[in-house]
């Protein structure tokens, strides 16, 4: 069957196409009013806040294991929060008292910052970076005074450094190495060089040298499972792809944990697909900002039919940029597995706005 994926890469592309078509239909058929978008964003943000909070709590309770939800779902939490942030200025201009909404929003932001930061330092970077992007896009979309001042940037840097310092201190006081930011840095220092050397020496235009991956003689020279969708989504259809599961998950950490995504993508899918992915990343951002300009023009001309779509696009674009940047240029795990599915969804949510069916 021609439509049945034969490799991880084919399966990823097929899922991306399906998600894109589904999002286009939803964006055009669902009544995406500002009130509905705001309500859904508030519920989703609260849900992820509770999820991250419980997961962080399990770090301190013996006998419970944590699930690290921040990697796959952190960008979706960012999407929800920034969507709320984008909806508030619109409501203000309509004369609605948004004080309670702002208190709710900042409460969620602070809670997720603490809970998510306890779970993963890479999430904390994504979260802070994403909030900065969100504030920037919102200020430009609503022609507000720039939020980026020397004082504010310095304050955020100081808070971030203080947060990392507090985590390191907490890890030593409680004797919990899992909380230590320095442990992560030391692991990268010890192992990243070998991982980078393996990738650079063996990567080809379409994958990697046969026998250079973990599978040895069974290595296919590409799509060997270093970059994949969630295992459950693969086994659901019984697809015979090479998978790192169970204890084998640690075997792909040589790339997944130690290197930025550009190296992981290049090693498993080749330089050609890496160029395509980077081009797609840039194209999605371009389309997103172009649609935001279109929405702003319509809003300023008195058209209120796209207010909900505009807020959703700001949230989606922010989360897409933040996750893509962190995943491609900092840590491969941020765009792998379930996080890859999230990345494809965010991409679809941005590009889906390009297709706007006029309703009579």
Describe the structure.
The chain crosses the membrane at residues 12-30, 36-61, 73-91, 124-142, 154-174, 226-249, 269-289, 310-331, 337-357. Keywords: Membrane, Transmembrane, Transmembrane helix. This protein has 360 residues and is mostly helical. It has helices at 8-29, 34-57, 70-93, 99-119, 121-141, 150-173, 181-202, 231-235, 253-256, 261-269, 271-300, 307-329, 338-351. Helix content is 68%, strand content 0%. α4 packs antiparallel against α5 (121-141).
Mean pLDDT: 86
Strand tally: 0
- Structural class, please? mainly alpha
Oligomeric assembly:
single chain
Tally of individual domains = 1
The biggest beta sheet reads: none
Order of helices and strands: HHHHHHHHHHHHH
User: What amount of the residues lies in strands?
Assistant: under 5%
**Can you give the helix content as a percent range?**
55-70%
The radius of gyration is 21 Å
How many helical elements? 13
- Distance from N terminus to C terminus (CA atoms, Å) equals 41 Å
Low-pLDDT segments, ≥5 res: none
The best one-word shape is: globular
What's the topology here?
Blueprint: H1 8-29, H2 34-57, H3 70-93, H4 99-119, H5 121-141, H6 150-173, H7 181-202, H8 231-235, H9 253-256, H10 261-269, H11 271-300, H12 307-329, H13 338-351
Helix pairs in contact: 1-13, 2-3, 2-4, 2-12, 3-4, 3-5, 3-12, 3-13, 4-5, 5-12, 7-10, 10-11, 11-12, 12-13
